[in-house]
Amino acid sequence: MAIAYFDCFSGISGDMILGALVDAGLDFDTLNSELAKLPLDGFRLTRKTVTRQLIAGTKIDVIVRTAEGREIIEGPGESGPFHDHGEARHLDDLTSVIEGSTLDGAVRSRAIEVFDHLATAESKVHGISKQEVHLHEVSGVDAIVDVVGACIGLALLDIDRVYASALPVGRGFIHCAHGRMPVPAPGALELMRDMPVYHTGIEGELVTPTGAAFLKATANGHGVLPRMILRKIGYGAGTKDLPEHPNLLRVYIGDGVD
């Protein structure tokens, strides 16, 4: 039984998950071939090795071509996670995009589950139905690619079970489509319900809604590293270079031991 354990000492986000899986051995060309099955145009992935406090990791970026023909890195910036590069989508829209792909059925189902958790959390926060929720921050091409790519990665690496550490939360405020919000953002915090969390005192968002929703959909448990024969290790880099510790997500992949 193959196990993936996400060590979230610096938080977790969609791009960090994808970076960690690629760093652990997920074939980048095969990943791109699978992502090409999405009915989306005008995007490509890039990868590069970066260091975060002297530890090397893989940074994945989603490059999107605008209507004017410019290429931009879509995703969270230094000032917060919200970049409105397109029209906000509803859950049904995102489901249609994924179901309209030629991806494996299990990958499609898992990716849809991630977005369903996101919509459920936002509906609770805002007091509206899932179908009414505008998924501003997670409906861009980058978020779709991150979520679907992570689900593809688990499948290609033949992961049977997923576990994760307790989740660190930051402090302060972020700017998003709904205005100035406390950290953790209410939607992200709702997604962390029933997960172990702890306060770090670090300024800024460490666990993004996409990262929390991915764990909500995939994790079989949270806590210490389960017993395994360790086979692969990967580090996925976040965008910022934090002064407190390396801004990396670490994944352990191995064979479960009773």
Number of domains: 1
Class from secondary-structure proportions = alpha/beta
- Indicate the mean pLDDT: 91
| Major sheet description | 5 strands, mixed
Count of strand segments: 12
Give the overall silhouette. globular
Count every helix, treating DSSP H or I runs of 4 or more residues as helices. Answer: 7
What gap, in angstroms, lies between the N and C termini? 10 Å
The strand line-up of the biggest sheet is: 10-5-1-12-11
Order of helices and strands: EHHEEEHHHEEEEHEHEEE
State the low-pLDDT regions, or none. 77-86
Strand content: 25-35%
Rg value: 17 Å
Could you characterize what this model shows?
This protein is α/β, with parallel strands linked by helices. It has one domain (2-256). Helices cover 31% and strands 30% of the residues. It contains seven helices and twelve strands. The strands form four sheets. Strands 10-5-1-12-11 form a five-stranded mixed beta sheet. The N and C termini lie close together (10 Å). Mean pLDDT is 91; it is low at 77-86.
